[in-house]
Amino acid sequence: MNASGDKTGSGNQLSWYMVGQAAWFSSIGLQFVLFPILVANVLNETGTRLGIAQVSLSAPALVFMLLGGATADRGDPRTILFRIHLFAALPPLALASALNVDLLSFELLVAYGVCMGTATAFAMPARDATLTRVAGSNVQKAVTLALAVQQTTQLAGMSLAIFASKVGMPILFTIQSLVILAGGIAARQLPKKTADVVSQPSRLQAMKDGLNYVLKSDVLAPVVAAMFAVGVFYVGAILVLFPLIVRDFYPGDDAFELGVANIFFWGATIISTLFLLRFGHVARRGRGVMISLFLGVLVVFGYTFEPPYWMFCLLAFAWGLGAGCVMVLGRTIVQSEADEAFRGRALSIFQLGFAGGAPLGSLIMGVLADAIGPHSTMWFSVVGMTLVLAWLMLKSRLWTLHAHDVH
């Protein structure tokens, strides 16, 4: 039963949801390019230190994502999102101020990463739990539309970041803060969750119940395992190896070149997401996830040959096509399979697949890149994801999963 009555699924509520989605992820897109540039280029840190800095953005998910999911299931997501947006507007302002007075340091960037990572750990489950309540009857279409908005606005943020050398980073971080504040205003327009009259367990017990619920599911558990592998073998490569390769192998404007490569990747995710939005219902969602992950293996294998920059971007485009399918189909499986009482927690655990695996992947990638070079480090992703796909094929039913199997 919907917590918001007849209003759930109205076009106005879904529109406000998308405004908040756009504000959050456009700021994330800006951060995605500027943050590693500050570490690798402005401070000229090593691969290991870049990995540590990226861990500061993703590690809070390991600590707070389950708590964020339990909080979303127990509380009012509208209020949670509003407060998180207010909090998340502060770190970019701190960075802008530090850059203006030439006080940027590695420690400050790590503090920024911890703050933004913590905000994300609470914002994502609250946002995901709200989507189903405003989506109406077609959950896959709403999920796909939300991802399309996410990817498009994230791409817009990355596009703005490539002009950092002309506009100035302090101005861009100030813009990031204002955009996040605008998203908080949009969150206040979402429907308020009706109070649950049933007594609820403690947050700790709610987290345990959610984790047990996912682990016992023969559909959700393999999807979460696959997403954790994505975090380790794919997200780590994008966060750490991409900036290092651009800095060390492609001379020029690093912010511009890294921004363009990311635009190729995320632009491709938009194309595949819009294709799924137009194509509609996908019956073999699990099979689509596995094929898309294998496409990623082929792309990463191509990076081991130290391609020229134009090929680097084309490979990123191919990788993004598969990534868009993984994000849409994987999230749709979780949205459709999870019971409403556990949906926020199930989606937070799903998000841990990306955000939770990324710290481990980032650390490994950074250390290996310093030892054997970023291109050779790509072999870690090739071998690792191949083994994961073999396990999923042999030990799970994702390949044969049909949409009629979920409810």
Characterise this structure.
By secondary structure, the chain is mostly helical. The protein has a single domain, classed as Growth Hormone, Chain: A (Up-down Bundle), CATH 1.20.1250.20. It contains 17 helices and no strands. It has helices spanning 11-42, 47-58, 60-74, 77-88, 90-100, 106-134, 139-161, 164-167, 169-187, 203-216, 220-249, 254-279, 285-303, 309-337, 343-355, 357-372, 374-395. α1 packs antiparallel against α6, α1 runs parallel beside α7 (139-161) and α3 (60-74) packs parallel to α6 (106-134). The longest helix has 32 residues, at 11-42. The chain is globular, with a radius of gyration of 20 Å. The relative contact order is 0.17.
List keywords for this structure.
Growth Hormone, Chain: A, 17 helices, disordered N terminus, mainly alpha, 407 residues
